[in-house]
Specification:
Elements: E1 12-13, E2 20-21, H1 24-28, E3 33-37, E4 44-51, E5 58-63
Antiparallel strand pairs: 1-2, 3-4, 4-5
Bound molecules: zinc ion (2 copies).
Residues 14, 16-17, 19, 38, 40-41, 43 line the site of one zinc ion.
Amino acid sequence: MALDTVMPNLHLECPHCDHSHGDPLEVLQHTQEDDMRCESCGRTFTFAIVECPQCETDNIRTWAQGSPRPEDMRCCECHHALEACEEE
Ligand SMILES: [Zn+2]
Ligand SMILES: [Zn+2]
């Protein structure tokens, strides 16, 4: 597997304006879930890596403040429902 084809489905899109942010992997090396500020509209959103429980594809999901909507938590490959981040 070539390095530049690893996880091609990983990209960060602002849930407010759909602006696409390059190179999320740099951020994601440090954390599985974090807040980020959109460089386009300036608003903040949360992103997380969620592994599909069915096909084990890594999905990046972004959402505005609060909890992700269930319709946002679908695997991009098989559309299986992803496990939302647990809130403690
Ligand atoms: Zn934005
Ligand atoms: Zn899946």
